[in-house]
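[Q] Does anyone have a clean structure-token version of this?
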Amino acid sequence: MKKLQRLTIENFQSHEFTQIDFSPGFNVIVGQSDQGKSALIRALKWLIYNEPRGVDFIRVGATRSSVTILLTDGTQITRERTPSRNRYYLLIPGQEENIFEGFGSRVPQEIQDALGMGKVKLDEDLERMLNLGEQLEAPFLLAETGSVKAKAIGRLYGVHIIDAALRETVRDMSRAQQEEKRLEDRLRQVSGDLDDYSDLPNLAQKVQYLRQKLTELKVLTGRLDTCRGLKQRKEELDSYILRAEITIKGLVGLPKCEELIKKIALLRSRHSAAREYRRELKQAREKVLQAEKVLQATQGLKRAEEWQLAAQNCRRMGTELANLYRENRRIEGHINRAQEILQRTKGIEQAVRHLELYQEKRKERSVLEKYRQEFRTAFQRGKGAEEAILNAEKAIRQYGDEYGTLLEGLGKCPLCFSDITPETIKGILSEYTGEGS
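[A] Here you go.
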């Protein structure tokens, strides 16, 4: 049999931390007033029976309260309460700890089974504790009324089962009598209602007769609908025959009409050919006007091409002059180094050789001076040529933009008369400006 071995209380009412070990058998808690004896009983009731509810029992200044009991078989049960958490912890030797939440006002069944200290039910709405007793509470059943004592004793001996069966039997007999009376009243009512339907056999024969007549009427109605349809069809055929006779009378001059139709068809084909010729002529005139506009817009292209060739020649000459200038600078460097060598040398042979070299370099220098003068003249001309090239390129771009705008406005090529797209215009202009490929 399971018994309490130890009670541990933390932050429950006036108890900050209290631990009590119970002796085997009957235990009584005694002490002075206002020392927390009732709080111990309330802590046990809170853990075993989930009473009281709420958080008012948490010690002032604390945010958590817990009660733990240890049973003689080693089972440990803890009840923990915070403003936001309400849990049971069950730890059975040899098993993992179980946590229970969301149990409401009841105690989880696993906790009840582990404790084995549930309340004793004396009646449907009457329960009593056998394992706990509070201060000034009378012994079991002595303070109860006679009816409660009788129910408790009857429950101990199983009499409550007979009482419950008797009550159920009395209720069932009462319900059966009421149902019997109700059915008798209903039977009398139905018997009176049947008198109103005593002529039902005659009405059934009449209904059968009317059904036969209704079937015959449906057959005759179908025949009538068929006759009406045939009559309408005959009237339509008569009307069609009449219209056909009138049409035949009106077709006396049919051969002449056929000849006129042939003539009309011939004139219509000629008229269509004339319209086609007219449309082609209009398109040809429009193409001629477009070609004239293109020719007017491209009159300056030949001059731009000449300017481009001149600019290219000037650019080539500038490159050659730059190369001559660099060669002249290199030769001047050699001459300067030769002069330095002559100043540092004292031998005649070396002086002769350097003199010969100096004379050769002097001749080269005179040639280079001539080239330098030519280079300066060409350089000045190159500047003018570069300005002419820039002006020519600017003019080419301007004419190219105007030409592209005209092509975009025309929408067709002036040479092959094909459709013009932005990519086609870009390709045509790149051929003239040399930009892109």
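[Q] Thanks! Anything notable?
[A] DSSP finds nine helices and eight strands in the chain.
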